[in-house]
Amino acid sequence: MIPPVEPIVRADAIARVSFERSDPVRMARFLVDFGFVPLAPPAEGRQYFRGCGPASYCVEVIAGTHDVFLGFALSARSRDDLHALARFERRGLGPAEGPGGGERLRLHDPDGHRIDLLWGAETLSPLSVREPLAAVNLPNAATRINRPVRSEPAPAPVFRIGHVVLQTPRFGEMMDWYRTRFGFLASDIATIPDGTPVLGFFRFDRGEEPADHHSLALLAGPDARLLHVSAETIDLDAIGQGQQHLRAQGWNHHWGIGRHVLGSQIFDYWKDNAGDEWEHYADGDLMTADYPTGFHPLSRAGLWAWGDDLPDSMRPPGPLPADAPAQARAIIEALSAAPRPWLR
Ligand SMILES: [Fe+2]
């Protein structure tokens, strides 16, 4: 159903995301409350934020007149890969922006997002965070004796950018563009009744090394836009206390806490000051390259296993006009069907 491609390179990870913000000071406040750490000093009109992991930075915020998602960068597995893709695209390399340096190949995907392939950026010493609450008392296995769980509201420590989700009016073209250039493998694909894929979750091909269930997801829709950026935190308690912290700071909660079906992440979604969505996640699926692609009929019920229903703003609008494209009608119908017997 998804024909295999021989990719130019196999990229390794999502390294960083970039935004233009008309109010970068407030954006910085959101990112810090979300769990990122600002790098000092800010450059002229630009500020950079790291996670607790080794990436030189995870988020770039450029001061401007608009609120725009500019794009993201993927890490190459080798300098040879960077050059191989540059040759394929017949484009030159340039110095990577911001802390850490390195080289990058700058491309634009079919929807116009700025996509860099990055190599050679310096890494940072990871920041220390609390241990995961790995010891869990089970009905038949007591592993946490005389050790109460005591956590406080605090920004959820985020380690790295986990994935980016894009809505696109050219799903097939976007899917092929990313698979051909960066070696993305389809982990799960949701289809409408005629078999057309309209939602896809794609992971990096790391061979026998496990990769996140998805580092990129695409949803067919009327216009090209960012749906969300997701960052990995420690565990459910980090997500819960991170939620309390974000609530205390007055930020707009969007959806969660729940667990996804495709990818299995425990999730919680927030909106930044410009209305873009950010997801905290923990305990997501990891797959090796040989894990087969799953195919599923698109449904709202298939988007989450437990937790609240989708917020109204993520639900499809009312019935489409009679002359709307058949694919749009099929997507809206699939996402409109009651996901649980007690939900409408
Ligand atoms: Fe997500």
Automatic annotation (TrEMBL):
Q: Where is the VOC domain?
A: 160-283
Q: Gene3D superfamilies given for it?
A: 2,3-Dihydroxybiphenyl 1,2-Dioxygenase, domain 1 (3.10.180.10)
Which residues, by range, are in coiled-coil regions? Answer: none
Which protein are we looking at? VOC family protein
Origin organism lineage? Bacteria, Pseudomonadati, Pseudomonadota, Alphaproteobacteria, Sphingomonadales
Q: Note one Pfam family from the annotation.
A: Glyoxalase
